[in-house]
Design brief:
With 336 residues, the protein is an alpha/beta fold. Helices cover 48% and strands 12% of the residues. The protein contains 14 helices and nine strands. It has helices at residues 3-11, 29-37, 50-53, 85-91, 102-119, 134-140, 142-151, 153-175, 199-218, 236-242, 258-264, 276-281, 283-299, 316-332, and strands at 58-63, 123-130, 182-186, 190-191, 194-195, 223-227, 246-248, 269-274, 302-306. Helix 13 runs parallel beside helix 14. The longest helix is centred in the middle third of the chain and has 23 residues, at 153-175. It is globular. It starts with a helix and ends with a helix.
Length: 336
């Protein structure tokens, strides 16, 4: 099997020759800076090719932009860009880029440049859009966003409706270039104690727009994954009702029990799940973590990977141990 066939076999709960070996998210820059000091020689290697240099399968994410390059920036992290419906209408000139904006064209060019490598089976491709929790938060600011469900419900729905229409309009432009292997709706609507919103708010403000875009995406035969950090466990039934196929990154430090989730949701896709803190602790801890995940790996529909970006506390030596064990267990998992 090639990389693409192997990856899609897992997404379809089929048996591959081994599990994919991927990092769904690239490393923190500080992590790579440390590894260079400890022996990583990547001086002539593009950032996205470090993964294959280390022995991983090639995977590339294309995060589609929702703002134009000349947009204003918030005053500080999490500060609002807009605070009213009128401000939203005025700000829309900076939203929803098209072929006249270089940042949008750049993303399509990445797809074009990798399309042949994907079609040859070497490059696993996926694309993502900010979702209906994430994007309103970017516009409204972190604090105002959480109040907006009550204070500005009409504005919230207007933003989500515009976003849904934009995403649907971009799909033909993506798929005329290449058929990515899966896509992700980026949300981060859970944290270490569970969802940031109630099921009632999800059903009112998020669900209608999932139900609008997901059928359009699935017309192309693409799996839909939601990216939400923290403990997503309580939200999985909500996502299933919305037509979502799976989640990532399944953070262990937030209490996510992947073994239990697989028992509860045998047909749901999972990506991530490997406790990044074990990578700091050394080989024994990493092997124990792989043993914890091995039953899930054998059942299919799960691609093990770091449960978020590999932190800079992980030495290059420990990461090489992680890669060796990942290959060992990727092979073990095929022995169902």
């Amino acid at each position: 099997m090639n990389n693409v066939e192997r990856f899609n076999a897992v997404l379809n709960f089929e048996k591959p020759d081994r599990l994919p070996m991927v990092e769904w998210a690239s490393w923190w820059p500080d992590t790579v800076y440390r590894w260079r000091e400890e022996g990583l020689d990547d001086s002539a290697i593009p950032w996205d090719r470090i993964q294959t240099h280390l022995g991983l399968d090639y995977i590339q994410r294309i995060w589609m932009p929702l703002m134009t390059p000349d947009r204003p920036r918030p005053a500080s992290h999490g500060a609002p860009l807009i605070e009213s419906a009128d401000e939203y209408e005025a700000f829309k000139k900076y939203l929803y880029p098209n072929e006249t904006h270089w940042n949008y064209v750049k993303k399509l060019d990445v797809l074009k440049n990798l399309s042949q490598e994907h079609n040859n089976g070497d490059a696993v491709l996926w694309y993502s859009f900010d979702g209906f929790f994430w994007f309103p938060r970017v516009l409204l600011g972190i604090e105002n966003h959480l109040y907006s469900f009550y204070d500005e419900p009409e504005l919230y729905h207007r933003i989500c409706s515009d976003l849904a229409d934009y995403i649907i309009a971009q799909l033909p432009k993506i798929y005329e270039i290449v058929k990515p292997d899966f896509m992700v709706i980026s949300e981060d609507m859970s944290y270490n104690n569970g969802p940031m919103i109630s099921e009632e708010l999800f059903d009112e403000f998020i669900l209608p727009y999932y139900q609008k875009i997901i059928p359009e995406i699935k017309k192309y035969g693409t799996k839909v994954i939601v990216d939400t950090d923290g403990d997503v466990s309580m939200m999985i039934p909500w996502l299933i009702r919305a037509g979502v196929d799976g989640v990532l990154p399944l953070e262990r430090q937030a209490g996510v029990d992947l073994v239990k989730l697989r028992e509860q949701y045998p047909n749901f896709l999972f990506i991530g799940g490997f406790d990044k803190m074990a990578m700091i602790a050394g080989e024994d801890a990493m092997r124990k973590e792989f043993e914890r995940l091995l039953p899930v790996m054998k059942k299919g529909g799960f691609i093990p990977s770091c449960d978020h970006q590999t932190p800079p506390q992980v030495s290059f030596e420990n990461y090489q141990i992680y890669l060796r064990l990942l290959r060992e267990y990727a092979e073990k998992a095929k022995n169902v």
